[in-house]
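User: Let's play a game. I give you a shape written as tokens, and you guess the letters that built it. Ready? Here's round one.
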């Protein structure tokens, strides 16, 4: 059984969408709540999507060694995985699932034994279309995310598995089958 599952890929690839569907279908997985210094989006709640921290608080936690990994992403926003999240999930007897950008994902792959990394991919033009439609970032930040996405797509081969998210239902089926195989689980939960 993997110690941790990591889902990575460029912004707009569909990581969040696929993870939500995965956890509905496969029991025994719990998504870590990362810390970030970016602003809350409409509909987000502190402690649910992220722990929203000030820059000072984030850096103080870095200094105290509270993070498994942390990065500075576009627009100077920081993101990181708190070690306490892994401990909380392991105490529940579940496998932690981390949703990370590629730099953090590669760090976890190399530093956490038993980590399995899954790269979610999509064409750049499609990423741009989805981010514009999602409309959660400014035009400038979408541009930054797309520039970064071009570089991230070239890194796909460095991860253990790559899933192309063109057709959503097919991608969900592929991810679900992969993770069930990794967990050795045959049990399924009813679709909501
Ligand atoms: P990420 O978490 O990787 O940034 P999201 O899960 O937020 O990506 O998806 C970005 C946007 O694209 C969302 O609005 C989502 O509904 C949409 N989306 C996700 N997968 C697909 C797909 N296969 N086809 C079309 N739209 C998709
Ligand atoms: P968003 O601002 O769209 O929620 O996330 C931006 C990017 O940060 C996404 O690619 C997401 O996967 C990544 N991310 C979220 N939490 C973490 C984290 O704890 N560590 C790292 N390295 N990346 C993260």
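Assistant: Ready! My guess for every position:
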């Amino acid at each position: 059984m993997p110690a941790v599952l990591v889902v990575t890929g460029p912004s707009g690839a569909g990581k969040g969408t696929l993870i939500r569907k995965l956890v509905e279908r496969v029991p025994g997985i719990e998504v870590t709540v990362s810390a970030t210094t970016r602003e809350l989006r409409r509909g987000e709640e502190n402690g649910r999507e992220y722990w929203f921290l000030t820059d000072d608080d984030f850096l103080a936690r870095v200094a105290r060694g509270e993070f498994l990994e942390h990065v500075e992403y576009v627009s100077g926003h920081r993101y990181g995985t708190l070690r306490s999240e892994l401990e909380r999930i392991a105490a529940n007897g579940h496998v932690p699932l981390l949703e990370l950008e590629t730099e953090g994902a590669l760090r976890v792959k190399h530093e956490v034994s038993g980590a399995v990394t899954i790269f979610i991919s999509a064409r750049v033009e499609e990423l741009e279309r989805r981010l514009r439609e999602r409309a959660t970032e400014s035009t400038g930040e979408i541009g930054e995310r797309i520039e970064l996405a071009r570089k991230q797509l070239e890194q796909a081969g460095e991860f253990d598995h790559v899933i192309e998210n063109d057709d959503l239902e097919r991608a969900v089926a592929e991810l679900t089958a992969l993770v069930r195989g990794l967990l050795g689980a045959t049990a399924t939960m009813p679709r909501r």
